Amino acid sequence: MGILHKPFQQRTVWQLAPLMALVLLLSGCGINNIPTYDEKVTSAWSQVENQYQRRADLIPNLVETVKGFAAQEQETLTAVIEARSKATSIQVDESILNNPQKLQQFQQAQGELSSALSRLMAVSERYPDLKSNQNFLALQSQLEGTENRIAVARRDFIQAVERYNTELRTFPGKIWHSILYSDLEPRANFEATTENADEAPAVEF
């Protein structure tokens, strides 16, 4: 039995060898690149969401702190509150990545919030007691760090989308896309609305 079994095993190995070689060949030809890059885009987008949400979470305390020292700056305070409300009202699930118009609306709303926050921070220059308040200083530091993290997360997302979209348009990714991944579409990306928008800002408070 053992003698008969051994040739059978050898034949099975030789029959499987071409299949194993084909699997190795395909994996080396980038057959998995498209879904891998797609997952990286999704992961990078999650970081963008996280950092924008972190900023949104800081704003109510920041507004209340400024209000305690500069209640007369009502127009500026209201602008920040309204900009935050608009930015957080846009649903930012994964479907936004396939909707350039919605992504642009999200980007515009976040830009308006950034502008309103800049005006709020400028207000502090007129109130020495506010500038020296420990709560304000802590919020200011957290906001500055968050702005930098937003810039990094946006940069990583932009690079992930570029890599994914390039894979769909170039060889051999274009072939794998047409054969195996035709359901995956090019992703929308952020558009730079200001000069050097992909760089972490130098926040001056």
From TrEMBL:
Q: Which organism is it from?
A: Marinobacter salinus
Q: Which UniProt keywords apply?
A: Membrane, Transmembrane, Transmembrane helix
What's the family? Belongs to the LemA family.
Q: What is its main location?
A: membrane
Protein name stated in the entry:
LemA family protein
InterPro entries for the chain = LemA-like_dom_sf (IPR023353), MamQ_LemA (IPR007156)
Query: How does the record classify its membrane topology?
Result: Single-pass membrane protein
Q: Where in the cell is it found?
A: Membrane
Q: Name one GO cellular component term.
A: membrane
Q: Which PANTHER family match?
A: MEMBRANE PROTEIN, PROTEIN LEMA
